[in-house]
User: Fold this.
Amino acid sequence: MLIFGDSLSAGYGIDITESWPHLLQQELDRNGFKIVNASVSGETSLGGRQRLTKLLKQYHPAIVILELGANDGLRGYAITDIEENLNAILLQISKAGAKALLIGMKLPPNYGAPYIEQFQSMFPRLAKKHRIQLLPYLLEGVKADQFQADNLHPVADAQPRIMSNVLQALKPLLR
Assistant:
C-alpha cells in the first residue's frame, strides 16, 4: 500500500510515530499489509504527477491512498489544472493495476465561496469518473483546538481520528 500525499500525510510538525500513516500501519499489521508513505510536505498535484511513475515501478502497490490537492488550493491554482493533474495520477494508478482511495480536502473560508465550491466538488467528480473509493474530507471530526499554531496541520492528538477516517474509507478496498 502506498500513501501518496502532502504534509497532512507526512506528519508535519509531529513525531512520525504519531502520524496517521504510522497508526494505520499498526492497525493493518495483523492483516499483512505493508505501507510505504511517500508523502512530501508541500507537495502539489503537479509534483505528485511527476513523482508517481517511479514510485509505482519501485513498490508495485495493490492500493494507493491519494491525498493531494490541498497545497494547490491554498496557492489558488486553477481548479482545471489541479483536476487534470489528479486525473493523470489516477490514470497512472489504474494502469499500474492498483486500487485507489482518493482523499478530499476543504479550504479555509477566505478563499471565497465560488473557488471553495469548485475545489471541493472536484474530488467527488474524480471519484465518480474513475469509479474509485472517496473519503470526502480527511480531517472530518478534527476539533478546532486539535491544530498546530498554523491552523492547517493537526496535532498528534488528532491523528487517531484521521486514521479512523481513512481506515473506514479503506475497508472496501481491503477485501
